[in-house]
Write a structure and sequence with these properties.
Blueprint: E1 7-13, E2 16-17, E3 23-30, E4 36-43, H1 47-55, E5 60-67, E6 70-87, E7 90-99, H2 101-104, E8 108-113, H3 119-130, H4 137-144, E9 157-162, H5 163-173, E10 176-181, E11 184-189, E12 199-201, E13 207-213, E14 218-224, E15 234-238, E16 243-256, E17 262-269
Helix pairs in contact: 3-5
């Protein structure tokens, strides 16, 4: 593991690059249809910077972490709140953030479509109504290998009500799972993984301690903050008692730029592509 030296971080809040101050972060991401979240604690910001965060809404927050030459972005979202408190002689500013929270809030739609409308058109309209990017629907439908009859409406339909609920209904009809990652829709054929290369997780690549698998088949493992441990990614675990390929369902990242935590806690399940 000689390449995993020299921790690296790049944390940006609005126009503020947090390079020379102590920061701790706790990030939680999953494949669930809910907003990913992150909490940052920042030591001894200037009064101007603290006031700027307190007065600003929807400030973008980006967290990249890992090691020099081996790091990835682990969170992208928007500031929800910022508060500062005294901790001894220090002033600690705590930032709460969310990824896609605005998009997942209640937004209503009302639109009718004639028979033989491609379902991807309806899904695209719903994504636009939520203000979320949607770039790979055609590719995912192809990967899901659906019959043509399942990809068009057989009769005229009306889409009415909560946009997120309607999007869930129509994507379920296509056997497609969705979540919001980095402010955009991530689409996967049901029970499938992202098509990027699997992450190999062994004691020599960053695995910490011994993974476990419970009676529901959920694998849990702790790793150093190596790149690409993200929801939907395939991870190949090679340890003494646990071996196999799993889809990452949930991952949390904890870090302290002054030392201590620098880990990813992964939960995954064995995956099987549905025909």
């Amino acid at each position: 593991m000689t390449e995993l030296f020299d921790r690296y971080h790049e944390i940006v809040v609005g126009d503020l690059l947090l390079r020379d101050v102590r920061v701790t972060f706790n990030v939680s991401r999953s494949l669930k249809q809910e907003a990913n979240k992150a909490q940052l604690s920042i030591w001894n910001l200037s009064e101007d910077h603290r006031q700027g965060l307190a007065d600003t809404d929807k400030v973008p927050v980006s967290i990249s972490a890992g090691y020099v030459g081996r790091f990835s972005r682990i969170f992208l979202g928007n500031l929800r709140s910022a508060r500062s408190n005294l901790d001894g002689a220090d002033i600690v500013t705590t930032i709460e953030t969310g990824d896609g929270e605005d998009s997942l809030r209640s937004k209503n739609v009302s639109k009718s479509y004639p028979r033989q409308t491609p379902v991807k058109v309806i899904v695209s309209d719903l994504a636009k109504a939520l203000g979320i990017g949607l770039d790979n629907l055609e590719e995912v439908i192809s990967q899901a290998r659906l019959p043509t009859a399942d990809t068009v409406t057989l009769s005229g339909v009306s889409v009415f009500g909560n946009a997120a609920r309607e999007l869930r209904y129509w994507l379920d009809s296509l056997k497609i799972e969705w979540s919001v990652q980095d402010g955009a829709l991530q689409l996967l054929p049901k029970n499938d993984t992202l098509k990027s290369m699997a992450v190999r997780l062994t004691p020599s690549t960053g695995l910490v301690g011994s993974p476990t698998v419970d009676n529901k088949g959920v694998m849990k493992a702790t790793a150093l903050l190596i790149p690409d441990l993200e929801p939907g990614r395939s991870v190949v675990v090679e340890s003494r008692f646990v071996k196999g390929a799993y889809r990452i369902e949930k991952v949390s990242y904890t870090g302290d730029t002054a030392g201590g935590d620098w880990y990813a806690n992964v939960e995954g399940k064995v995956y099987q592509v549905t025909a």
